[in-house]
Amino acid sequence: MTSMEFDLKSPPGAVSPNPALITVFNTLQMAGLVLLLVVFLTARLAPTVKRSPAWYNIIIAWIISSSSSLLLMGQQTGRMPPFGLCLLQSMLIYAAPAMYDTSTLSDNRH
Hints:
By secondary structure, the chain is an all-alpha fold. About 65% of the residues lie in helices and about 0% in strands. The longest helix has 27 residues, at about 20-45. It is elongated. Keywords: Membrane, Transmembrane, Transmembrane helix.
């Protein structure tokens, strides 16, 4: 079996995905992304708002996190999404805790 071949049978006792919960998850992630972008753009474009570079780093880290959770939006049920897209999303999601820690430490040191 190659890495591109998958056994599509669910394990015993597996529960099928709930589309309502998937919609709630996607909606919350999208709302978080939009609000983070609003906060970022407001701080960046307003001439009177002064923020440290570390603050921008933290906001950008959370924007990347929200974006990575939305890569497979609309493909959570049904056919398998492309392998490369799944790999990219898993890399971003598993790297997120280290990204948060690094951006927070840079804020504390600034």
